[in-house]
Specification:
Layout: H1 8-17, H2 44-57, H3 83-91, E1 98-104, E2 111-117, H4 126-137
Antiparallel strand pairs: 1-2
Helix pairs in contact: 2-3
Length: about 140
């Protein structure tokens, strides 16, 4: 495993291998997605998509009705295909955003208090993947929004 990121294949192996007793993870649960299963780094947007599909298909967990806080992420629409997936895993507290505070507004010297971004194109590292998988399986450890 690369020390700086987790690959798609490693992520899927870790996700299935971390399941608590009583949860059976079908080998083909992610079939029908357009995510290529390979040794490329896993981007956060694809992790969000996989987590969301896993919630629906394997854990049979319903979507959150209110995802208002997720839609405030400044870059939520950078991946329109991923936006609803990101909104669900963010709102459920499985994946977090990055907060940048006290930054200058673009094209201005004025400062704003800050903003949150999901950074969907960022590669996921193993530590983040392990933390998110723990929160996926243990709803009590999810970050409250």
């Amino acid at each position: 495993m690369n020390d700086t990121y987790i690959t798609v294949t490693e992520f899927l192996t870790l996700l299935a291998g971390s399941s608590p007793a009583g949860i059976v993870v079908p080998a083909d649960w992610y079939k029908g997605t357009d995510i290529l299963i390979n040794d490329e780094p896993l981007q956060r947007k694809n992790a969000a998509r996989l987590f969301h599909l896993f919630l629906l298909r394997v854990l049979k967990e319903s979507d959150e009705a209110n995802t208002d806080k997720a839609w405030k992420l400044r870059d939520i629409y950078d991946c329109r295909v991923c936006a609803a997936h990101i909104a669900q895993v963010y709102q459920k507290g499985i994946m977090d955003a990055f907060f940048y505070e006290d930054v200058a507004k673009e094209g201005s010297s004025q400062k704003e208090d800050g903003f949150s971004v999901f950074e969907s194109n960022r590669n996921m590292d193993k530590e983040e993947a392990v933390d998110c998988i723990k929160r996926l399986y243990d709803a009590g450890s999810r970050h409250k929004r």
